[in-house]
């Protein structure tokens, strides 16, 4: 429920005081981002892949990396997760998530951490959500390696912005030094680097194609179980390539 004595108008003022929201949440009738350029985001996006999540998370622990305003953390609690931890490097987003969880009466543990430091939590989680973060990172493969090493116990729900080919082709075990044509195929893994800005955002550094996303996940030790929607990957922690062991 809302904090004691807080009217809808006062709640609206608190929402406004926390700056622009990227997650549009319904806080007992108060919308946090009613003019979101992507519509009712991320609810409309969530509906395209929510079938990939277990409907009953009782007894399971969940880590939401880059939790933003808390939409997915809240959804995980609604599915009965025993413990949900949300981390974000942005203090403003964490303040938004704290307000949202307080208003909705949802128990989510929040910490200001970036993905590289997630191991400082000192535990592995049954389900890890890592969505909308990779392309903001200077060192994306390192982040996946660290998640495998310290954080993911079982399932990884992964999402990244992708551009280019949407299909992954067969990966050869080796390529001759004279090979050229494979690199021109649309289904060959490619990771595009953005030196300046994309969509006006200077923190958009990397944009993979679908083949690159799958290859990076496999390289970090995650098996892709399902692609329930565009740019969404349901993965399970598995063994890392022999060269990394």
Automatic annotation (TrEMBL):
GO terms for MF: methyltransferase activity
Pfam families: Methyltransf_9 (PF08003)
Record-given protein name: Methyltransferase, family
Keywords assigned by UniProt, alphabetized: Methyltransferase, S-adenosyl-L-methionine, Transferase
InterPro entries per record: Meth_Rta_06860, Mo5U34_MeTrfas-like, SAM-dependent_MTases_sf
One annotated GO biological process: methylation
């Amino acid at each position: 429920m809302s904090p004691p004595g807080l009217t809808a108008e006062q709640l609206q003022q608190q929402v406004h005081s926390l700056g622009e929201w990227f997650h549009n949440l319904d806080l007992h009738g108060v919308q946090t981002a009613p003019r979101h350029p992507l519509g009712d985001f991320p609810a409309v996006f969530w509906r395209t892949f929510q079938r990939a999540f277990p409907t009953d998370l009782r007894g399971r622990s969940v880590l939401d990396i880059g939790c933003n305003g808390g939409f997915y953390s809240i959804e995980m609690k609604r599915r009965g997760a025993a413990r949900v931890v949300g981390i974000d490097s942005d203090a403003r987003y964490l303040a938004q998530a704290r307000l949202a969880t307080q208003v909705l009466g949802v128990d989510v543990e929040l910490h200001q951490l970036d993905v590289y430091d997630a191991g400082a939590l000192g535990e592995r989680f049954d389900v890890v959500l890592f969505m909308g973060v990779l392309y903001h990172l200077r060192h994306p493969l390192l982040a996946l390696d660290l998640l495998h090493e310290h954080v993911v116990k079982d399932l990884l729900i992964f999402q990244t912005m992708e551009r280019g080919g949407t299909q992954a082709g067969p990966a050869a075990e080796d390529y001759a030094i004279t090979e050229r044509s494979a690199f021109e195929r649309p289904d060959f893994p490619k990771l595009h680097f953005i030196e300046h800005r994309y969509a006006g955002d200077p923190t958009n550094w990397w944009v993979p194609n679908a083949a690159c996303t799958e290859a990076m996940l496999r390289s970090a030790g995650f098996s892709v179980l399902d692609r329930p929607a565009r740019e969404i990957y349901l993965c399970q922690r598995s063994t890392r390539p022999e060269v990394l062991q």
